[in-house]
Design brief:
This protein is an alpha+beta fold and 517 residues long. The protein is 21% helix and 37% strand. Strand 15 and strand 16 form a beta hairpin.
Length: 517
């Protein structure tokens, strides 16, 4: 039986087709890709390329070339191979998939899930970037472009239906056994090195050759080592230092970049890299620039004073993350009304989370415009959807609740409440960062240390979201719970309305999320 519903795939070019999560007959394949991505991201610790010698002492280190591509899981079953990614996209008909299927069949493998990077190989030797993969995979210009998409496998999730558990040496031996002398399926180059000096030397060599960075694995953990990147951004807010001996100094600064439509999008905050003189100078410059704002950003339980968008900084970051545990990173887009001296909320849209931001210098030579503060600084480094889109022109359809059920149970004189709501967002056609369906689960138990807990599940498949609903009910409703409401309602309750209005990650089954996470 094929793992693909081919009638749900859209042919792009020369046998190459793309589909959503509902194109696979086994919805757990998408979940496995999502869970693996979340787990590996949480395990990989970021290290500055300049700190390698300090970080890594004598030992045994498995060091691999870090490819700049799109994380995907290769699904192989009985001669058929395709890719799925954590966003729920299915791709089939690539030359690299055909090669992988041939190699695995020759090795006697019946079924396999193999994690790796789908990347673009440029014939001129230049480094392919993740946005090259995105462009070609979405709308290929030619078969030659598609044939230049390659796959770099770096882990095995399952082999013949059994979770694959092996040490790094055995894993890499197995990958090289499966894919020897590949043309389009090539495990990343790796070396066993002895200390930080050797790692630093290899890091510099690979960065010159176009690597995004290196991945280091050892008994002490797993690390991604990357060079720092510099960004120009504008200050839109500040907090004052709470320490008495630092009165009159800034604690940190809230930053933004500018979208092509002239809107400001919150980038994050920076609190490192400042001298005490810097902190005093910024406070003196910004304290009289405070303006009104519909939007409130908080850090360390302190709200930012929003200021006129006039001061431009250069910062450096170790990494930019476009995905988090709950899906895509989103930040607020703001419109600054100079006449009213006020920031107005536009909407949340995808951007990134800054890893280890550091202040570098002021940029008095830059101006507040969509060129000097361009959001493309971000998308040149990491794929972020909808950055070219007019944030202010979007008009989104309202959501519609499909199911709503409430259950109660009395224990030790206290009433516990569990509420389940499923709704259709009606926004997939207008905004890729919204899922098609959402389940919101509220669990209130007054005698528990954390009385209120919540869980969110999302999917682009009605079949999958119905299965998730059934699983959630079976997991949480047993003997003793009384049903108090059932069926559809016209619109979400006030409690759920904020969840409906926010973009959510695409096509995944989210893990449980506590209220205080």
């Amino acid at each position: 039986m094929s793992l693909l519903r081919k009638e749900r795939l859209e042919t792009k070019l020369a046998g190459y087709a793309v589909g959503a999560a509902n194109a696979v007959t086994d919805p757990t394949l998408i979940t496995k890709a999502q869970e693996y991505k979340r787990f590996t991201a949480s395990q990989l610790r970021a290290v500055d390329g300049e700190e390698i010698k300090k970080k890594f002492g004598p030992g045994d280190y498995h060091v691999s070339f870090k490819i700049d591509g799109e994380f995907s899981v290769l699904v192989y079953a009985d001669g058929e191979a395709f890719h799925v990614n954590p966003g729920g996209t299915v791709r089939v008909g690539l030359a690299c998939q055909n090669e992988a299927a041939e190699k695995l069949k020759a090795a006697g493998v019946k079924r396999a899930l193999i994690a790796g990077e789908l990347y673009y190989h440029k014939a001129n030797g230049e480094r392919g970037r993740v946005y090259d993969v995105t462009r070609i995979a979405r709308q290929p210009a030619s078969k030659a472009e598609l044939d230049d998409l390659r796959f770099g496998p770096f882990d095995i999730l399952e082999l013949d239906g059994v979770p694959y558990k092996a040490g790094i040496r055995d894993l890499w031996d197995k990958l090289e056994q499966f894919f020897p002398d590949g043309a389009r399926v090539i495990p990343p180059e790796t070396h066993w090195l002895k200390d930080g000096g050797e790692i630093a030397k290899q890091f510099k060599t690979w960065i010159k050759a176009g690597a995004e960075g290196v991945v280091v694995r050892s008994e002490g953990g797993s690390f991604k080592v990357k060079p720092r990147h510099n960004l120009d951004c504008v200050v839109i807010g500040f907090t004052e230092s709470p320490e008495e001996d630092r009165h009159g100094m800034i604690h940190d600064l809230l930053l933004a970049v500018m979208r092509p439509d002239g809107m400001f999008q919150v980038l994050g905050h920076v609190g490192g890299g400042f001298t005490e003189d810097d902190r005093r100078a910024f406070y003196a410059d910004l304290k009289d620039d405070v303006v009104a704002s519909e939007y409130v950003e908080v850090n360390d339980q302190v709200a930012y004073h929003m200021v006129r968008p006039e001061t431009i900084l250069e910062i450096s970051v170790l990494d930019l993350l476009a995905q988090k545990t709950q899906g895509s990173v989103t930040t607020m887009v703001l419109n600054y009304d100079g006449a009213a001296k006020q920031y107005k909320i536009v909407r949340r849209m995808p951007l990134v989370k800054l890893i280890s931001p550091q202040f570098v210098r002021r940029r008095d030579d830059k101006q507040v415009n969509a060129t000097d503060l361009r959001i493309k600084q971000i998308t040149d480094l990491v794929e972020v959807p909808d950055t070219e889109r007019d944030a202010g022109g979007a008009s989104l359809k309202p959501s519609a609740v499909l199911k709503r059920e409430v259950y109660t149970k009395v224990l030790k004189g206290a009433t516990m409440v569990r509420k389940f709501v499923m709704w259709e967002t009606n926004k997939r056609a207008d905004a890729d960062d919204f899922p098609a369906y959402v389940i919101h689960f509220t669990d209130f138990s007054p005698n528990r240390k954390t009385p209120l807990e919540r869980d969110i599940r999302v999917s682009n498949s009605r079949e999958q979201i119905d299965a998730l609903w059934a699983d959630l009910l079976a997991e949480n409703i047993a003997k003793g719970w009384a049903a108090h409401a059932a069926g559809a309602t016209a619109s979400p309750t006030p409690e759920e309305s904020t969840s409906v209005s926010k973009p959510a990650p695409k096509n995944r089954a989210a893990p449980k999320k506590k209220a205080d996470d």
